[in-house]
Amino acid sequence: MHALASALQSPPDARPSALPAGCVLSLTADHRHFDSDHEHATRAEAARRLAMLKGVGFRGEFKRTQPREAPTYFVPSDTLTADAADALDITDEHDLFGGVVPHAFVGTKVITHPLVFESAARPLGWNPAFADRVAGSVLRGYSAFSHDEALIAGKRLLDHGDARVKPACATGGRGQTVVRNVAALEHCVGQMSEDELRTHGVVIEENLSEPVITLSVGQIVVGGLRASYHGVQRMTRNNHGHMVYGGSDLTLVRGDFDALLALDLAPNVRLGIEQSRDYHQAAEDCFPGFFASRINYDVAQGLSPSGEQRSGVLEQSWRMGGATGAEIAGLECFRDHPDCHQVWASCFEVHGTQETPPGATVYFRGNDKVAGELVKYTVVSELRTDAHAS
After folding, report:
1. Sign of the C-alpha dihedral, residues 222, 256, 314, 152?
2. Is the peptide bond before 76 cis (omega within 30 degrees of 0)?
3. What confidence tens digit (pLDDT) does each residue in 217-251 have?
4. Is 269 among the domain residues?
5. Pair (177, 288) in one structural domain
6. Is 65 left (phi over 0), alpha (psi -120 to 50) or beta?
7. Which InterPro entries match (predicted)?
8. Residue 143 belongs to what domain range?
9. Same structural domain for residues 68 and 154?
10. CB atoms within 10 A of CB 297
């Protein structure tokens, strides 16, 4: 590859002449998703900080018409397909902050559940072994790729109580509908086009009773640093009066999931970590060509419609996500403090205007065209050298 065109200049603090060859670029993988003002700004700041972790320069947003330095590290807005990764010379987890999947559907929640029957419609590359492998780590549910099969799935679940209809490509809980009877199910499924269902599919899942705890379990690898974490998500009210994701409080450890499980953990947290680890291992085994440097699993814990305690992975995120600010903060602490084994870090998404606390890393502050006034920031609350304390 050729040197990056001079039109993409490094920020003043990058000092490219003092850095190893290569650079970091942010990448808008799909201009239909994760393309708002605040998402662009947040991704750029994350990419800048990842470049500092790697000791290379940040060169801004990737432009397909311009040549690149080699090696180039990408921070994409979404999980990439193998074809897209090949076009960018991405070959392993050290080439991007995110993940690569052999087929687009593998990067969505639709892989989490089985089909309604063996001969049901499915996309090319579907592997029924995955749902078998994760059956003990997810909630009761089905995936469907046609109206008829979605109705069959929903009716089976309604026999046990309320069901939740989840479009496969929706993120952050958006677009989901709780149905309590067959008429509501038929209306909800009927709003989806046959093309949408055939291409992307839909998930229909048992609906847990409130209050529901949503754990975040994940792992990130950047250069020679690896950290794993567990945490809890927070909700907040946005400028339009809706409850949305408001941030995460994470406990990060240096190392893999075994290092995380070595902590003194509450039983429900340990279960969520084990379920996430099993889900991730199944993905690696069942979908050859999948790899990721950033993995995050949402684990819901609450009561099933029949009153039984449930815990299960809802979906995966193999891309930059809401908790990434806290993830990067953890890696920065591990880099700067070789004796540090644990970090407590939190990220916040505050709708409206708010002053940030001293020492906060601000990822976005401004008036987004869609979200309105928004502040996104990260703080580190504590470091610890004891590897086994909770």
Report:
1. positive
2. no
3. 999 999 899 999 999 998 889 998 888 889 999 99
4. yes
5. no
6. alpha
7. DUF3182 (IPR021519)
8. 106-208
9. no
10. 23
248 and 377: one domain? yes
- Distance CA(136)–CA(389), nearest Å, equals 28
Q: Do 184 and 244 fall into the same domain?
A: no
Q: Is the dihedral of CA 256, 262, 264, 269 positive or negative?
A: positive
| 272 and 295 part of one domain | yes
Beta-carbon count within 10 A of 173 CB:
16
Burial class of 373 by CB neighbour count within 10 A (0 to 12, 13 to 18, 19+) = middle
Other Cβ atoms closer than 10 A to 146: 18
| Six token digits for residue 31 | 């201009």
Read off the pLDDT of residues 4-62 as tens digits, 9 standing for 90 and up.
222 223 333 333 333 455 899 999 987 556 667 888 899 999 999 999 999 999 999 99
Distance of alpha carbon 275 from alpha carbon 143, whole angstroms: 19
Residue 290 tokens, joined: 């999948």
Pick from 200, 218, 167: nearest CA to 321: 218
* Same-domain check for residues 72 and 128: no
Q: What is the residue-averaged pLDDT of the chain?
A: 89
**65 phi/psi in degrees, rounded to 5:** -85, -5
Measured from the Cβ of residue 90, the count of other Cβ atoms closer than 10 Å reads: 23
3-state secondary structure 316-360: EECCCCCCHHHHHHHHHHHHHCCCCCEEEEEEEEEECCCCCCCCC
Residue 113 to residue 390: CA distance in whole angstroms: 33
